[in-house]
Design brief:
CATH architecture: Alpha-Beta Barrel
Number of strands: 8
Distance between the termini: 25 Å
Largest sheet: 8 strands, parallel, barrel
Shape: globular
Helix content: 40-55%
Number of helices: 11
CATH class: Alpha Beta
Radius of gyration: 18 Å
CATH topology: TIM Barrel
CATH superfamily: Divalent-metal-dependent TIM barrel enzymes
Order of helices and strands: EHEHHEHEHEHEHHEHEHH
Strand order of the largest sheet: 1-2-3-4-5-6-7-8
Length: 301
């Protein structure tokens, strides 16, 4: 497994200077830097190439994540809106290829955050989403880019709320480069157990986000990390595990994630760095402990 973190842990806005985070997250011990797809979309060719060079300089893998906006809703009943959305994602995929990013995660099957003040028909939305994801996946295939569809809680979106729903969806999409993203924050709300959700996703699992139920870094809450580590090992998961804590209030990030108070204990940047570095050590120890347990069990059998 490769361990990474999302840039927005330090930011209030989705669009940021990602170059500065290559050196930072590498120095903190991470292998992966996840950036915003919206930021990648807005960058020009030279900026994308510069980001790629900087990531390579520090031995980092880049990944991207995005929640499409309502005017780019690829599950919309409006054909023009769906066309806007698929065109947006295709251009984003072009930019990702230049930047050397081979996976796009998030809500790329609809839009986010979902507007529950409007009526919706879930089966119709699902059918259009499947149609759009197939089109985007076929386009992404030329670049060997994987689309990881994020499973989120009922308060953020109605379409994919649990691993079982996501498995049914990706199996109907039936494209080898369409996988599932499970996020411990959302799993804590929707799943019966972390273990069962991960085992359900099985070979369809392509990306994992980790963070506590209180949105803090792993180790500062009650999430069952040993259980998660064991389940990931049991399915032979060997992809990215990306921390996605949100502890700062304010800005578009705070608004979209619904962070209405400071969760960092008024931490400065140095303390934020220290907290997430300690969290990385905690997660690796927890997951490594499960590797040892599994190996011992195999030996006894």
């Amino acid at each position: 497994m490769r361990f990474g973190t999302y840039f927005a842990y330090w930011e209030n806005e989705w669009d940021a200077d990602y170059l500065q985070y290559c050196k930072k997250v590498s120095a903190l011990g991470f292998d992966v830097l996840e950036v915003s797809g919206a930021g990648i979309y807005s960058m020009n060719e030279e900026e994308l190439k510069e980001l790629r060079r900087e990531a390579e300089r520090y031995g980092l893998k880049l990944t991207a994540c995005i929640g499409l906006t309502k005017d780019n809703d690829v599950s919309s009943e409006d054909e023009k809106v769906r066309a806007n959305g698929t065109a947006f994602v295709k251009r984003l995929l072009d930019h990702m290829h230049i930047a050397g990013i081979d996976r796009l995660s998030g809500i790329t099957y609809s839009y986010w955050p979902f507007d529950y003040s409007q009526k919706f028909d879930k089966p119709v939305m699902r059918a259009y989403a499947i149609q759009s994801v197939r089109e985007m996946a076929d386009y992404a295939a030329q670049y060997d880019i994987i689309l990881n569809l994020e499973v989120v809680n009922r308060f953020e979106h109605p379409l994919l709320n649990c691993a079982a729903e996501a498995v049914g969806f990706v199996e109907e999409v039936d494209r080898p480069n369409v996988k599932i993203l499970l996020d411990t924050f959302h799993m804590n709300i929707e799943e019966d157990t972390f273990r069962d959700a991960i085992l359900c996703a099985g070979p369809h699992l392509g990306h994992v986000h980790i963070g506590e139920a209180n949105r803090k870094v792993p180790g500062k809450g009650h999430i069952a990390w040993d259980e998660i580590g064991e389940a990931l090992r049991r399915i032979g998961y060997d992809e990215c595990v990306v921390m996605e804590p949100f502890v700062k209030e304010g800005g578009k990030v705070g608004l979209d994630i619904r962070v209405w108070r400071d969760l960092s204990d008024d931490a400065d940047e140095a303390k934020l760095d220290s907290d997430i570095a300690d969290s990385l050590v905690f997660v690796k120890k927890s997951f490594w402990r499960q590797i040892r347990i599994i190996n011992v069990r195999k030996h006894l059998l």
